[in-house]
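Reviewers of the previous submission asked for a worked example of the structure-prediction workflow described in the proposal, so we include one complete record here. The input consisted solely of the amino acid sequence. No template or homolog information was supplied to the procedure at any stage.
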Amino acid sequence: MEIHIPTTKPFSFRQSLTFACRFAPLETAAIIEADRMVAAFAAGDRGWACELRGRDSDLVVTLPKGAPKHLATRMSDLVGARDDLRPFYALAATDPAMAPVVANLHGLHQVRFLGLEEIAVYCVMMQRTPIRIAATYKLRFLERFGLPVDFEGRTLRAMPSIEALAQLEVDDIADAINHRPKAERIAGVVRGVAKLGERFLTTAPYAEARDALLEIPGIGPFSAAAILLRGLGRVEEVPSIEMFEDAGRAIYGARWKPKAIAAHYGNHIGTWAFYLKTAASRVVASAA
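From that input alone, the workflow returned the following structure tokens.
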């Protein structure tokens, strides 16, 4: 079954695929190729492999027979197809350091984690942990708890729903990832996030959603921002602009003035951070 997905222009699927190829969390959860992206999602206690391709200036999702149609929206959200970049681009046009970044990444919408359930688990795995090691924890987790689905001879594993994750026992998580302190935090975080629910976290005023997350033991400012930004696409805040010091200096050089930059971008600071980190990582990669 093919479902047409309109995009908010400008949108570049090529930019999405280029970013996704370098996004470590997707390496264990998706197939990224030159012209398509395939990802697995849970629905009805099983995994479903969904294929996303570009067609003209929009997208087409191919769902397997019997798959719930709402999974097309999950694929659309994965590449931020409905995000409106125009306000950010208008602000970037008056920023001499960011304007060339936008020109280079033009049409890149924020590629997210595979839903609230994945970021709720992964935000704990990332805490004080290099991204490659966190990705290894996630692979172990999915090997134990993921819902397998075969696609063209490959096996993808869908992260269980947030409600299913909330039923996992600490001992089982610890055995899977071989890290008990993280297992204890994962169990507490997914239960807390499940209680809040995706609808609340997506629609509540940003400060209300953020503060509710911060009430959950195991979630600090960085993890709360990661859930809202990289999981749900909410760009209104970042935990602290100072945390982008290295990337900021790589792109801005002597123009790096964090407070002025934060004031300039306002409620679009999350999109700015995504573009900044993407550009800086490519600078580092080209210099290696």
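The CA atoms of residues 199 and 232 lie 10 Å apart. We consider this example representative of the routine output the project will generate in years two and three.
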